[in-house]
Fold each of these.
Amino acid sequence: MFFSFKEDLLHYLWKYQLFRTPDLKTKSGKSLHILRQGMLQTNAGPDFIQAKIQIDQIILAGTIEVHVQEGEWIQHKHHLDASYNTVVLHVVWESKNNYTYLENQQPIEVLTLQDKVDERLLARYATLMNTITEVPCAKLYKPIHPSLLHCFLQELCVERLERKVITIYRLLETTNNDWNQVVFMQLARYMGSSINNETLQQLAYSIPMQIIHKNFDQPSIIEAILFGQSGLLRAYHTDEYPTTLYREYQYQKRLHSLEVMNASSWKYARLRPASFPNIRIAQLAALVSSGKWSIELLVSIDSYSAFKQLFEVPIHSYWCSHYDFEKERGTPFEPSIGEASIITLYINFFVPLLFAYGKETDNEEICERAFVLLEQVPFEKNKITAAFPFLTVERRCAADSQALIELRTNYCATSRCLDCAIGNEILKGK
């Protein structure tokens, strides 16, 4: 049986007491009864707090420290750290010594688990760790209780929203808590897909929202500013439309001391013309020119249909026949934002933004509404969500697909089987 034996496996074994507990003996031969295994904590200090054990006739309350090898106590310099003097038991996989010594020179008992864990559990763990597939547990999976699976998927959906909230909070820090600037940046990011998302967000960051607000009634100025800042406008164009944009941008650039981006940042490879940066910037300009993307208006939205109405804005007619400046399309094109893109923005931009605002303002109703809104759009069918055909789970809506995406990207892909409810059931042999 070959696998990388990590401390987190021992944490898991101790937390769930997945070893033979009758007639336990410490390394020195004393009887051991675990009255309370304690709670795993991730802060500095011993691994498990509020534990209680009985060694022979003596009851001890304190903390538990867990290591693969007993010698790691000294390697980690715990023997020099007074905060570890609360440890009443040192739990290890294997040890040569009967005792571990605290900073105050007091000896504590050592419990070894090497001969106390079911070999079948270790074999299942080795299989999970050594299987190189998108979902390591696919071949080991056995149906688990529907209510357990349902609760776990709900937790995953919350986790995914919470992670996106962290990103939004970081943006708030960089914008001096300007929610409308963050709205602009996040809207731009998720309009850029995975190819130009960072560059589109950088474009939005380079344009203060005060300038956009000032020109709501003049969409041509907003177009000029966005295209000018992107670096895609040139001093000499033959078409009237980009020529006019360039002239206007030169004025706005001097007026607001704007610094143009490097045009080489934009990527066109492997993109269909409908997703070219020029089209996305034209769409973004049309959206923000409508004046409907303030945080106050967004948090009042209570349905997908209301969100979809925000996209009913005209895109400049130039883009009906062009996919780049002075590059005409062979056939007429409708440059409006399609249904699939709107749903993507709804799931990845709008709902997390709503959830973050609800948390920031301590408004539980807004947070709850974010979850309800995820249930109003269909389940996302993609390579990631298709990786779980063996799971007997409803695939009703985006809340379900977001849970599976979180499971695949932040559990399966990083071998977090010990933190996964499905992995837990497999390891326990249930």
Amino acid sequence: MRTIEGKSYVVAYATSPSPVEVGRHFVVDFVVCPRGNGKPAHSVRVDANMPEHRHGMNYRPTVVALEPGRYRGEGLMFHMPGRWDVTFD
């Protein structure tokens, strides 16, 4: 499991499969935790892009709420090798 810390939230996530394979769909399970006295997230999305190539994925992922604060992003695919940045909004 990996974590990303922002100003308002901490996100812990894991991909399946791990590691992600180029050219194959994968899912990302993640938990969004508010910092301090912050409010729980009411809307989330996940995406990925290649900063060196200035483009994103060829697929639009969907997010399913599994329970309050816990989500699954489906339909992600890294269609080419290289550095990908995953973002959570």
